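FAQ: What does the model actually see?

It sees only this:
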Amino acid sequence: MKDQPGGRPAGFFGAAKMIFWAFFGVRRRKHGEFDASQLTPLQIVVAGILGGAVFVLVLVVVVRAVVMGHGATT
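And it is asked to produce this:
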């Protein structure tokens, strides 16, 4: 795993990566601890809310596509 240069915080993409792995449910403790040490609680909360919203929107789109594909009308 690459360390951040100069001990800088991981930023938004680091938070997004951490939240993705949390949703997926697979993460090594070492990697999780490294991410947690590089991120602020605010970054984690915002990334979690955005990740949850994207997850729900994807589910809605998939369900609508399946329902519309079977001839249902809305």
